[in-house]
Structures are given as structure tokens and as C-alpha cells.
């Protein structure tokens, strides 16, 4: 680990400034060397290449008195010593970094330092589609030979999965994700969602139906046209945006021309005036593979919460199509996370999210007490990796009975397990669209009527839940998501 240009005993604000300066310099040096190589064929010298490195943030804590106690789930120190991580995009993460660092200094007396790491910045992470060396005739093999490239050996989730090894002379991990893991996911987010990663908002709705996205877009346009609305822009797949001052006809034209079909999991991002508390909806499609894929990458943004709002099959005779299921447990038959998070590890329901979902349902439907209970049922959701699980009913019926599951889908258990694994608050509210065990299947006419009636209300419950949770941010990041030996940062 390099110690060049180490700045010590910094305030959190000074840390942010030094990180931004060091990162900007490293990226500028790399881009200039790339541009020169394209123009002249001159490769970077070893001295120049030594500048293509991520900045490093160190925290040292040597307590002199009683150990500081806090009931906060993050930004706390439990063992003395050195903690370290590499940082990317410090300007974007500035508020997050300050949120973590300020209590560490004020409450624990931690000492903060900034230096230069040994980890090189891969050249694809500083390029954009308009760069000449991206759209020119340069051979990728030559770039890979002369410039730092992404190496899978440096990208991993060992810290998040508790697989990191702490040696006596090594720093402890400061964050769940280091710079190269974060950059890896930032690029993937753009590829899958069609929007720049910086436009993805910290409150995230995940769905498996485009109709929810259509409803979200209508809501966004209404909010942008409403006087006094806190929202200022709707960012669409393909780099298009609608602003508050965009005329209605022009806004509709922009939305109609957004090339969402070109992206596997298109995202729509509704930005608020404070630029820190907006809402994103992502159509993740169907299946646990997509659910794991997108949340692996969303997690590096450290979102405040992700909520699953989608459809499910009802497993109880008493349920009615259009009823809601508030998941308080998951029977994980998706299999995709079995090695990382074995099925016997419980994925707990988060009280703050559960209460907010229930209250939001009451506010939107206008029903409370027994009337709400008839429409909103709490219970276990079983998540399969096989859409045709019904064909294995004779093998699955006993397990479903033992679990007391009341609904079945293909994403919720995976999304909750990923939230638990990656320390992102999560919740699930599903809408019963069919009852496969009771002869009520999706027929075209009934399905169309159901969609028209149910989707709008369901989406509103999701949006209302986020409004409620915004006021509970401190308690939302629950200690249920933290182990006894955790990185310091949230």
C-alpha cells in the first residue's frame, strides 16, 4: 500500500477535498495519456502510469478511555487499529462520506488520512462514449497491454460476504465495496438500466411489470407539472430527461421516444430538489437471476431502501385477485444465493419498512382495521427459480404447507436476501394476480381488467411508503443488517 503524498490529521471536509483532488488528477492523467496514445502512438511511461491510481482513505483509532457507545448501526468503531479503503467518484459520494466520517471524528476521536493506493484505475472507468479513443480505430488489445484494465482478481464481495482475511499488519476494511468494485458496478448499471449511474436515486422501487413503470412515468410528469412539487426532473433510459419547465407536449414526446426497449432493465429516475432523496423505478424483468444481477450493482450506490412491488400467485383459497401480500418471511427456492447466503440463514423482516408499507396501504386504500386485513395479508412468500413450478406440485406441496406460504413469485426472496447480504433495507408488497392452485389463472380478459384496476393503486402504495420512510432514515438502517464484525461505513 503506497504512502506517497499522505495527508494526515484531516477534518472530514478536508478528506473530501483531498479525495476529490487526488481522484481528479489521477483520471486526468490517465485520460491525457490515452488521448496522446491515440494521436501519436506514445505509450505511458512507468512514471506516468504510477499516477493512474485510486486515492486511499485511512482511519486510525486508538481509544484512550472508555469505548464510545452508540446505538447507531453504522459509522462506529469497535476495535482499535487502522481501517482503510480505496475511493472512486468522491464528488458523487461526498455527502455519504461526510455522513460516515463526521461521527467517527466527533464521537470516537478517529484520525483521518488520505493517500495514494497501489490500485490502478482501469482505463474503461474514465472513458465516456464520446471520447475519441473509444470511437476511434485503436485496438483494444493494445490498450489492454499498455494501460490498466479491469481484472476480475481485484473485484469481489469478500468483505460483504465475511470472507476477508485480516492479518496482523493489514488494515481492516473500512467499507463494503472498494473503488474498483464500485466502478465495476457503476458501468454495469449504465449498461443494464440505460441511465447514467449518477441519476439513480437512493429510494428504489423494483418491479417485474412494465405497467408499473408506465404508471411511475405518468406520476412523474404530473409531479413536474404540479406547482410546489419537490421534484425537478425525470431521467429516462437513453439519456433523455424531462425538466420542470419542459412543456407538456414536449415532455410527452420525449417520453415516447425514450428507447427503453434497448435496455435489459430500464430505469426511470425522479429527482427531487435536494438532489439526494428522489425515487427510481427499475423494471427488473422476471426471475431471480435478474434480481441478483441488478441489486449486486445498485448496492454500491448505498441506497436508502429497495422495495419490491410486483405480482404474485396467491396460495390460499381465501385470497381474492387484487389482494395484497406483505411479506414477513421468505421461503427461498430461488437457489441463486445458496452458497453466498445459505437458505437456513433467516432473512428478517424490517419493522420500519413493514409498518410503513402497512400504513401506506391504509392511506391509499382508505381502509383500516378488519377491512384492511381482508385485503392486506402478511405471511411467507415462496420464491422459485422455475416459472413452471406448478408442474412439480406433487414434490413442492409439502414444503409449501410446512412454510405456511401464502404467495409465490420469482424475485422477492432474492431481493430481500440481497438486501440482507449487502446491508440495504428491503421490503416486499405484492399483488395477487392469479391463484394457480385454485383454478383462478390469468386469462386475457380478466388479466387486463385486473391490471387497469390494481397497478395504479399498488404503485401509489409504494410511493407513499417511500414518503413515510424518508422521515425515518436514521432508524431505517437497522442493526439487524449488521454483523458483530462489520466494516465501519454503512
UniProtKB/TrEMBL annotation:
<dbReference type="InterPro" id="IPR037109">
    <property type="entry name" value="AMP_N_sf"/>
</dbReference>
<dbReference type="InterPro" id="IPR000845">
    <property type="entry name" value="Nucleoside_phosphorylase_d"/>
</dbReference>
<dbReference type="GO" id="GO:0009116">
    <property type="term" value="P:nucleoside metabolic process"/>
</dbReference>
<feature type="domain" description="Nucleoside phosphorylase">
    <location>
        <begin position="280"/>
        <end position="455"/>
    </location>
</feature>
<comment type="similarity">
    <text>Belongs to the AMP nucleosidase family.</text>
</comment>
<dbReference type="Pfam" id="PF10423">
    <property type="entry name" value="AMNp_N"/>
</dbReference>
<protein>
    <recommendedName>
        <fullName>AMP nucleosidase</fullName>
        <ecNumber>3.2.2.4</ecNumber>
    </recommendedName>
</protein>
<dbReference type="InterPro" id="IPR018953">
    <property type="entry name" value="AMP_nucleoside_Pase_N"/>
</dbReference>
<dbReference type="InterPro" id="IPR011271">
    <property type="entry name" value="AMP_nucleosidase"/>
</dbReference>
<dbReference type="Pfam" id="PF01048">
    <property type="entry name" value="PNP_UDP_1"/>
</dbReference>
<dbReference type="GO" id="GO:0008714">
    <property type="term" value="F:AMP nucleosidase activity"/>
</dbReference>
<keyword id="KW-0378">Hydrolase</keyword>
<dbReference type="InterPro" id="IPR035994">
    <property type="entry name" value="Nucleoside_phosphorylase_sf"/>
</dbReference>
<dbReference type="GO" id="GO:0005829">
    <property type="term" value="C:cytosol"/>
</dbReference>
<dbReference type="GO" id="GO:0044209">
    <property type="term" value="P:AMP salvage"/>
</dbReference>
<comment type="function">
    <text>Catalyzes the hydrolysis of the N-glycosidic bond of AMP to form adenine and ribose 5-phosphate. Involved in regulation of AMP concentrations.</text>
</comment>
<feature type="domain" description="AMP nucleoside phosphorylase N-terminal">
    <location>
        <begin position="15"/>
        <end position="170"/>
    </location>
</feature>
Amino acid at each position: 500500500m503506497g504512502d506517497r503524498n499522505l495527508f494526515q490529521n484531516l477534518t472530514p471536509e478536508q478528506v473530501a477535498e483531498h479525495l476529490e483532488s487526488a481522484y481528479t488528477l489521477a483520471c486526468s492523467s490517465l485520460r491525457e495519456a490515452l488521448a496522446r496514445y491515440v494521436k501519436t502512438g506514445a505509450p505511458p511511461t512507468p512514471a506516468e502510469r504510477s499516477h493512474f491510481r485510486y486515492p486511499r482513505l485511512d482511519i486510525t483509532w486508538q481509544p484512550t478511555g472508555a469505548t464510545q457507545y452508540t446505538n447507531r448501526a453504522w459509522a462506529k468503531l469497535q476495535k482499535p487499529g487502522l481501517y482503510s479503503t480505496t475511493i472512486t467518484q468522491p464528488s458523487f459520494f461526498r455527502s455519504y462520506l461526510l455522513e460516515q466520517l463526521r461521527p467517527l471524528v466527533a464521537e470516537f476521536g478517529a484520525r483521518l488520512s488520505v493517500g495514494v493506493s497501489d490500485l490502478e484505475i482501469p482505463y474503461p472507468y474514465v472513458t465516456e462514449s464520446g471520447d475519441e479513443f473509444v470511437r476511434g480505430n485503436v485496438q483494444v488489445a493494445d490498450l489492454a497491454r499498455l494501460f490498466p484494465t479491469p481484472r476480475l482478481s481485484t473485484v469481489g464481495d469478500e468483505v460483504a460476504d465475511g470472507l476477508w482475511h485480516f492479518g496482523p499488519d493489514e488494515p481492516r476494511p473500512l467499507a463494503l465495496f472498494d473503488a474498483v468494485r464500485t466502478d465495476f458496478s457503476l458501468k454495469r448499471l449504465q449498461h443494464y438500466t440505460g441511465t447514467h449511474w449518477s441519476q439513480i436515486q437512493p429510494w428504489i422501487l423494483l418491479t417485474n411489470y412494465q405497467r408499473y413503470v408506465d404508471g411511475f412515468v405518468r406520476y412523474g410528469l404530473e409531479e413536474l407539472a404540479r406547482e410546489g412539487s419537490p421534484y425537478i426532473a425525470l431521467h429516462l433510459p437513453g439519456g433523455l430527461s424531462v425538466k420542470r419547465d419542459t412543456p407538456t407536449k414536449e415532455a410527452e414526446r420525449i417520453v415516447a421516444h425514450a428507447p427503453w426497449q434497448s435496455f435489459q432493465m430500464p430505469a426511470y429516475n425522479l429527482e427531487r430538489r435536494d438532489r439526494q432523496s428522489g425515487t427510481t423505478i427499475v423494471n427488473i424483468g422476471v426471475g431471480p437471476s435478474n434480481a441478483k444481477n441488478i441489486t449486486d450493482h445498485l448496492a454500491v450506490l448505498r441506497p436508502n431502501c429497495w422495495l419490491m412491488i410486483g405480482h404474485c400467485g396467491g396460495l390460499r383459497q381465501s385470497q381474492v385477485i387484487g389482494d395484497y401480500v406483505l411479506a414477513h418471511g421468505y421461503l427461498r427456492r430461488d437457489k441463486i444465493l445458496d452458497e453466498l447466503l445459505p437458505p437456513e440463514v433467516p432473512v428478517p423482516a424490517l419493522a420500519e419498512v413493514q409498518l410503513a408499507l402497512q400504513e401506506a396501504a391504509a392511506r391509499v386504500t382508505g381502509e383500516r382495521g378488519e377491512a384492511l386485513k381482508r385485503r392486506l395479508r402478511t405471511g411467507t412468500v415462496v420464491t422459485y427459480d422455475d416459472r413452471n413450478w406448478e408442474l412439480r406440485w406433487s414434490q413442492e406441496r409439502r414444503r409449501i404447507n410446512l412454510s405456511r406460504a401464502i404467495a409465490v413469485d420469482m424475485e422477492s426472496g432474492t431481493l430481500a436476501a440481497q438486501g440482507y447480504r449487502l446491508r440495504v433495507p428491503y421490503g416486499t408488497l405484492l399483488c395477487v394476480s392469479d391463484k394457480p392452485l385454485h383454478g383462478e389463472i390469468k386469462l386475457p380478459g380478466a388479466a387486463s381488467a385486473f391490471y387497469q384496476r390494481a397497478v395504479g393503486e399498488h404503485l401509489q402504495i409504494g410511493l407513499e411508503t417511500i414518503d413515510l420512510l424518508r422521515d425515518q432514515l436514521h432508524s431505517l438502517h437497522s442493526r439487524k443488517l449488521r454483523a458483530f464484525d462489520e466494516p465501519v461505513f454503512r
